[in-house]
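User: quick one - fold this with adenosine-5'-diphosphate bound?
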Amino acid sequence: MASVELRGLTKRYGAVAAVDNVSLKIDHGQLVCLLGPSGCGKTTTLRLIAGFLEPSDGEIHVGDRVVSSKARTLPPEARKMSMIFQSYALWPHMTVADNVTYGLKLRKLDRDTTAKKLAAIMATTKLEALAERYPGELSGGQQQRVALARALIVEPETLLLDEPLSNLDANLREEMRFEIRRLHDEYRYTTVYVTHDQSEAMTTADLIAVMNGGRIDQLGTPEDIYDRPQSEFVARFIGAANIIKGRARDADHMDFAGATLRVSGATLAGGETVAIAIRQHDIELSAQAPPDAGNTIKATVTRQVFLGATRDYLVAAADGTSLRVVTAPTNLVAEGSEVWLTLPAERCRALAR
Ligand code: ADP
Ligand code: MG
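Assistant: Sure. Structure tokens for the protein plus adenosine-5'-diphosphate:
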């Protein structure tokens, strides 16, 4: 079984911890995304898992083997892992078929077995027609598929991908996300997928680990991360969220901008300054006071912009907090007008930190 477990994994460069005490368990056959902004430690974590780097602290377990620790680091070739680099790293002087079978040649597999495995993987990655081409004669998406085929043909226990779609244009990137998920559903390799793109993570992952400054801020399903962000960082990074800070009245009420907001299912610390997140499209904006004034605050329209499918507002609450609200395109209120914002209690998420 190729489960992968990181225990207190740390990599320091001088005084800086690129990876800071990361613990994460990836079950056999699971696809976990490491998601976060540039510089948060994703590539370093992946290189530690692959064995290209030695940890400063902590351990990596694969199944019941310890593959990395301060005492001993197993070399990459002894880990039954395949890594796909951001640049693909194909051999320019070899045909597609030779690139794909390179790993099998190193393992000295016989001709028949090699041919069989090649035919199978070329079919799944839709490369049959391109077998005799050279990488320079392929599009970005085709090169990407060659890199995938080359990684998969050796039947690794674990597949590691570092921003594999970042060199592709937007349309192809979208298509390849589904392709990667389809291949995963077919082969079920334990996979660690690094990306800074939240939609890519949402499409491909069973679980997403959101990284921030070398640490995992939150681990959860795409739904968890999107609907229940636990920190301000995750709420902001996953996007389209407003952060509202106020004073907690009791476990599920907080005072904000002259109103009291109910926060469903929260355990706020009464008397403390607390923060909640609410998505831009979860706030209702109205030019008239709503008949049921629950969870409603007054605000002033700073700016509004028509975007075709939506109309987006920037508004200022009484205490100066600015909020973004996404409404129906027909919902037009002039700049400078007073509006009422309703923040449904079940859409307000208390943030832990
Ligand atoms: P990401 O892949 O999330 O963009 P990296 O893992 O590449 O981030 O880098 C994390 C942090 O560690 C960055 O601040 C980076 O500058 C630093 N770092 C990475 N590799 C080295 C190195 N070899 N020497 C010094 N600092 C490094
Ligand atoms: Mg990186």
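One thing worth noting: The chain has two domains: 4-232, 240-350.
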